[in-house]
Inverse folding.
């Protein structure tokens, strides 16, 4: 990569975020750089350490597999684990990327300014709520208006450690090295505490896979392209024909689903008859 194309270093990114104090004032490329900086297997994340990140990548890739298990891009290609790590470390990088701006992304217009990439500032109450959600209440009275809160940071740190411990105990090796069927078996055998973490990680995986790319996931719009969703088009509008005309692929998918349902019900009636 030439000097003109080289991404910023992690030190430069963090120094730039701290110096400006407002993510809204930074180039749209910076957030993508912050994700790219932790995308290698030996890199430390914005909150997670390299071992935790590798385990999280494997877990997210199990939830939404990509090549070679599935020909379509999956969670690894969409940088889902990096999205989650950026969320966990949101308050470590200056202005936290919590609420994307607006009104238009104009992502269909090459070179146009993306308003979504300029993140909004948080007021005092919003910051307290999000810090409590991410960091936990930490015994601070102002964060415990509804009682103590275990934050996402601790839940991921504990949950990933529990997943690794269960993997070594029942599978004899770390989670990353387990085969796909052994991962499935291990997840199905999870106790209540590990199951609660897996549910949280599943929800965040869906966010990072199919959410707006400005938050750090859905890299290259692979989540939208895989599902054939065109994404946001503001300020563009649809024509009447585009709204009223039946989409051929959607109609075909509906026909297949109805046919499968009819065959399933037919077999079930035969067994019950």
């Amino acid at each position: 990569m030439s000097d003109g194309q080289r991404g910023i270093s992690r030190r430069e990114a963090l120094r730039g975020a701290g110096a400006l104090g407002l993510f809204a004032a930074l180039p749209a490329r910076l957030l993508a750089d912050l994700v790219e900086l932790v995308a290698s297997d030996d890199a430390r994340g914005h909150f997670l350490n390299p071992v935790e990140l590798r385990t999280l990548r494997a877990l997210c890739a199990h939830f939404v597999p990509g090549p070679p298990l599935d020909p379509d891009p999956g969670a690894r290609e969409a940088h889902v684990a990096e999205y989650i790590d950026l969320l966990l470390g949101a308050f470590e990088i200056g202005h936290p990327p919590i609420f994307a701006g607006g009104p238009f992304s104009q992502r269909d217009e090459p070179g146009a300014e993306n308003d979504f990439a300029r993140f909004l500032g948080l007021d005092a109450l919003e910051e307290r709520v999000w810090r409590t959600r991410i960091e936990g209440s930490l015994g601070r009275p102002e964060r415990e208006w509804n009682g103590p809160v275990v934050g996402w940071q601790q839940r991921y740190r504990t949950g990933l450690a529990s997943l690794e411990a269960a993997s070594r105990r029942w599978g004899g090796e770390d989670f990353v090295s387990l085969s796909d069927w052994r991962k499935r078996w291990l997840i199905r055998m999870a106790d209540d505490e590990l199951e609660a973490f897996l549910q949280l990680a599943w929800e965040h995986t869906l966010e990072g896979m199919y959410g707006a790319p400005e938050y750090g996931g859905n890299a290259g719009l692979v989540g939208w392209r895989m599902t054939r969703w065109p994404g946001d088009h503001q300020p563009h509008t649809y024509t009447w024909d585009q709204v009223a005309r039946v989409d051929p692929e959607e109609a075909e998918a509906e026909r297949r689903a109805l046919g499968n349902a009819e065959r399933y019900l037919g077999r079930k009636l035969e067994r019950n008859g």
The chain has eleven helices and no strands.
